[in-house]
Structures are given as structure tokens and as C-alpha cells.
Amino acid sequence: MQGTAAVAMAALTAGCRVSGTKLTEQRVVMLGAGSAGIGVCEQIVRAMTAAGLSEQAARERIYVVDIRGLLTDDRTDLDPAQRRLAHRADAVLSTTTGPAGLADVVAAVHPTALVGLSTATGAFTEQIVRTMHEHCDRPVIMPLSNPTSRSEAAPQDLLDWTDGRALIATGSPFPQAHYGERDVPVAQCNNVYIFPGIGLAVTAVRATRVTDAMMTAAAEAVAESVDTHTRVPSLLPERARLAETATAVARAVARAAVADGVAPHLSDEEIDDSVEATRWQAAYGRPDAQA
After folding, report:
1. Where in the chain is the domain with CATH 3.40.50.720?
2. Domain 2-189, what fold?
């Protein structure tokens, strides 16, 4: 859950850089109120507060929708974690049949980011995506459900419905998409971007636990490893740069561990030296080399 939250946060942060907007300006709609969806939302709250918003203001920018509709404080079926992300019932739209559904929420709040962890195949419909794009030039859309057959939308459809403007990350692997003459890479929110670097950091500085700030630092480091200036930017680093990304994540996470007091005090130079000394790389000899 932490890994999914951090890599989704990294993709959202990269999306902000591509679109030239601030994280604190985002309006996020999450489809799915299970542990993974709630975990992603809480990571976004932490990142927004680290960027300057109050916790309340951050929560007000996130809307969570489940099978019964928008999470609101008058619902009696919410667990404590879900209730922390519920909106006041009298402060949001409602329908005559009950809580607002996904299409209602998107039409009302004009989200800049739409995230799915619902396993509801095709839930991000053409109407919903087009409505979102009417109010957001570069929408970040992340259908993160696994497996591919459960994805909330196909990347190619998302590009077609947004005139090629959508910034996309998925939970399952999808082939490269196309729009016009452009080949569009489809980023996959895989924990492989997060956990190797965190493990390296914990080992390198002997951290006693992994804090929320360390996960936020990991997400930021992944986002900073994305080349957002390419003609067709991706929301996550190239897979060929995974080792380089892991090292960047480790350095950022190790610094956060020292700052949080869960690791011995080290200077930045000492942290970098320790990460480098701890880092392992496989080295293979030539097949004809003698033992």
C-alpha cells in the first residue's frame, strides 16, 4: 500500500511539472475507497501539506467515490480511515437517489487528476473523461487497477478522448499508445520505482523505521528523475534508468530518515558515501573467462 501510494504520488508530481501547475492547486478524484485508494489519498494529503497547505485544505481538494457514491460525513457505512476523507454532506452536491456518483463529482468539482483503484472495468467512460478535459487542458488520469482486464480505462482511449492531452499512468502494463504521429509511452505505477531505493536507504544509514516523510521523499525523488522536457513526456522514469533512480531515491530517503531522527546523524556527504558503499551491482564475467 505504501509503495503504490508513493509511486502514484510521484506520477502526480511529474504530471504537475509537465502541465506547469502546482501540487497545491490540484483537485483529485479517487475512484475506490479500499486500503489502496485511501493510502494513495493520504499520501497526497501529506505531500500537499508539506508543500504548504493545511491538512484540512488538502483534504478538501480530494474527493473519494466508492460503489455507493461520494464519501460524505452523513454516511453510516464508512470506516475511520474513509471518514477522514469524507466531505460534509451539506457542502457538496447530492442527487435525488443518494450520494453523487463519479460522473456527478467530475462534472461538479472539475478535477485535474482522476485516479482509479476500484477494479471497475471501464469506469472512466468517454463522457466522464471528456467532461474532465473541458476544464483541464492536461488532465492526469491514472487507471491503476490490476489486472489489465480490470483497468478503469485503456490508455489509447484516454488519449483519443482528450485530443492527445492526457498524462497517463496505469497499474497494469499496457503497450505504447499513439496519437497523430506521436508514440506515447504509458508509465506503469510499479513499486519497483520505490522499494529498492527505500531498502538501500534503510540499510545504508541504519534507519530504525520508515516514516511518512521518508515515503514522501521517495515519491519526490522518483518525480525528479522524470525528464519532463521531452517532446512526449512520461510520468515515471524510463525502466532503463531504474538503478539510477533507486540511488536517487535512497539518497533522498536517507536524508529524510536522518531529519526524522530514525537514523544516526550524518552529513549529506556521509549519506551519499554510505549509499554508494552499500549499493550492490551485479557484475558478470565473460562466458569464456576462467574461474
Report:
1. 2-189
2. Rossmann fold (3.40.50)
